[in-house]
Amino acid sequence: MVEDALSQLLPLLRVAHGWAMRLSGYADADAARRVGDYLRTAELTSIAALLVIAYLSTLLVGMATRWVLGVVRLFVRLALLLAVVLAGVWCWQVGVEEAVVSAVHAGSEARGRWDELLAAREARGRRGGGSTGW
């Protein structure tokens, strides 16, 4: 299998070597020196340094963003875990029946206040006082 791949690659390598040998005769030593001088100029070096700095800074910003998002995700998970634990302890202290009655009462209270808020927003929007958007 490797021999088949090498046997197909060998003619391509021969052609590439032949072209490289033909073109090397046209290479000018003075042109190579001029290109080397151009590459060593301060402008090109400073541009290259700025590109490297920009690339590294984007990497650092990406790492910092991932770290911040990871910390935020950790705190959200801890807050949810704490809420579940506190709800479990509260349910254990007052009993399941009382906890269900209290939760339903709190839900209906919150729904009533939400409906009042929406009605007040719609009334204010019909009178033209204030925006109706969120």
Provide an overview of this structure.
By secondary structure, the protein is an all-alpha fold. 89% of the residues lie in helices and 0% in strands. It contains four helices and no strands. The protein is elongated, with a radius of gyration of 36 Å.
What general form does the structure show?
elongated
Helix % is over 70%
Please tell me the overall pLDDT: 82
Specify the number of helices.
4
Question: How many distinct beta strands?
Answer: 0
Structural class: mainly alpha
Q: How large, in whole angstroms, is the Cα Rg? A: 36 Å
Instruction: Please mark out the parts with pLDDT under 50 across 5 or more consecutive residues, or reply none.
Output: none
How much β-strand is present in the residues?
under 5%
Distance between the termini: 67 Å
> Mind describing the biggest β-sheet?
none
Query: What order do the helices and strands follow?
Result: HHHH
Keywords:
0% strand; 134 residues; mainly alpha; 89% helix; 4 helices; elongated
Q: What's this, in brief?
A:
With 134 residues, this protein is mostly helical. 89% of the residues lie in helices and 0% in strands. The protein contains four helices and no strands.
What is the strand and helix layout of this fold?
Layout: H1 2-24, H2 29-39, H3 42-94, H4 96-127
Helix pairs in contact: 3-4
